[in-house]
Amino acid sequence: MNKKFSKNRKTTLTPPHGGHLINLMVDDSEDRTKLIEESKTLLKLKLSTLEFSDLIMLGIGAFSPLEGFMNSSDYESVLNNKRLTSGTLWPLPVTITADSANDYRIGDTIALVSPYSDEIAGQLKIEDIFPYDKDIEAKAAFGTDDPSHPGAAKLKDVSSYHIGGKVKVFTEGGYPDAFAEYARPSEVRNIFSSRGWKTIVAFQTRNPIHRSHEYLTKVVLETADGLFIHPIVGKLKEGDIPAEVRMKCYQVLLDNYYPKDRVVLKVYPMEMRYAGPKEAILHAIIRQNYGCTHIVIGRDHAGVGDFYGPFEAQEIFDSLTDNDLLIKPTKMDWTFYCESCGGMASFKTCPHPDEDHKMISGTKLREMLSNGQYPPDYITRKEVSDILIDYYKNNKIKNRNR
C-alpha cells in the first residue's frame, strides 16, 4: 500500500543555509521599473553567461546566504578555506569581473547587463575592486589550471579584476517562460511543506536519466517521503544534451515509471562549473535552500574528463562538521546491470564477478544513439532512447545544412 501524505499537513523544512532564505529579486513592478530607468544613467557592466546565471541564483535565494558578489575578504577565504569570513561553509567563488579598476569607485552603484541583450539585469553597489590571479583561482576552485578543463578554460578568458558588492536583481533571464518547471526555492519549499514531506532527497542532473540514475533515485525513494529531481538548465559545455531535450526525457519517465505523488520535478538556472567535489558541496547548499534533507552524490558528481577521482565528491563531505551543512549526502556506489542478479545492482549489493556486470560509458552511449542504435533496455528506457535518437538525427540534419 502506497504511503500517502495529507495535502493539508504542513511541515517545518530544513532551514536554508546560513539560517535565512535571501530574496534579492525586485518583485514589485513599480519599484523595478523605477530602478531600471535609474540604471540607464549608471555605468554599465556586461556580464558573462556564468555571471548572469549567478546573478539570477543570487536573486532567487538559491545562493543564500550570499547577498551579492564576493568582496576580496570572502573571496580569499573561500579559495583558502571553503568558507566565508563569517565561518559559513561556501566552496567556490561567486564573482564578477571587469577589465580595469580605474573605471569604478567604491560606493558607486553600477548597472549589470545581460550577456544576451542590452537588458539591464540588476544593480550592484561596489564594496570592493581587486585584482586576482587566474591560475591560483583555477587551482583552488577546480584543482587544475589545465585549459582542457572547461571551468579553467573559461576563467582564462575573463577580465583581470573582481568587483564585489550587494545586488538588486531585476530579471530571471526568461527561465520562467522557457520552462514550466522553473521554480524559486521559496516556491519549492511551499510544495514540500504542503505535501507534508519531512525527508526529501534531491537528485542533481545535467544528463538524461538512464537506468542507473533511475535505480539510484528509486533506492532513495524507498526511505524518503519525496524525491526532488532538479536538473540544471543553465549553459553547459559543448556536447551536453540541450535542456529542452532532457526535459522531454525526464517527463516521459515520470509519466510512466515514477509515483506522481512522491516526486517533484523542477529546474534551476545555474551554469555548470564542472568543479567536481567542490561543486558537489555547492549543489548540496543549493538543495538545502530548496528545502531538501539529503542529496544523492554518486560517481564523479559534477566532474568532467579524468580530473577527479570517481568518489572524490563523496569524500569531501567527510571533511565537514555536522554544523557545516544541515543537508546530508546520500552516497551511492557504482551501479550496473548484473546478469546473474537479473537486475540493477552496485558493488555494495552484488556478489558476482565483473564479467556478469553490464556497463556502458557515456561516450559509447552517445555514439550508439547518434548512429540510430537502440541501447539495451537495461541501459536506457526505450521511451528515452526514442527522444535522444530523434534529437541526434535532427542535429545531424542541421549540421549538414549549415
What does this protein look like?
- The protein has 402 residues and is an alpha/beta fold.
- The protein is 34% helix and 17% strand.
- It is built from 13 helices and 14 strands.
- The chain has helices at residues 29-39, 49-60, 72-81, 134-142, 150-156, 175-178, 185-195, 211-221, 243-257, 277-289, 312-315, 362-370, 382-400; strands spanning 44-46, 68-69, 96-98, 109-113, 120-131, 161-169, 200-205, 226-231, 263-265, 294-297, 328-331, 335-338, 343-346, 357-358.
- Strands 1, 2, 3, 4, 5 and 6 form a 6-stranded mixed β-sheet that branches.
- Helix 9 (243-257) runs antiparallel to helix 13.
- It is globular and about 70 Å long.
- The N and C termini lie far apart (55 Å).
- Residues 1-7 have low confidence and may be disordered.
Helix content: 25-40%
**Count of DSSP-assigned helices:** 13
Percentage of residues in strands: 15-25%
Largest sheet: 6 strands, mixed
The helix-strand sequence is HEHEHEEEHHEHHEHEHEHEHEEEEHH
* Uncertain ranges: 1-7
Mean pLDDT: 94
Shape label = globular
Distance between the termini: 55 Å
Radius of gyration, CA atoms, in whole angstroms: 22 Å
Number of strand segments: 14
Structural class category? alpha/beta
List key phrases describing it.
globular, alpha/beta, 5-stranded parallel β-sheet, 402 residues, 6-stranded mixed β-sheet, 13 helices
Write the layout of secondary structure elements.
Blueprint: H1 29-39, E1 44-46, H2 49-60, E2 68-69, H3 72-81, E3 96-98, E4 109-113, E5 120-131, H4 134-142, H5 150-156, E6 161-169, H6 175-178, H7 185-195, E7 200-205, H8 211-221, E8 226-231, H9 243-257, E9 263-265, H10 277-289, E10 294-297, H11 312-315, E11 328-331, E12 335-338, E13 343-346, E14 357-358, H12 362-370, H13 382-400
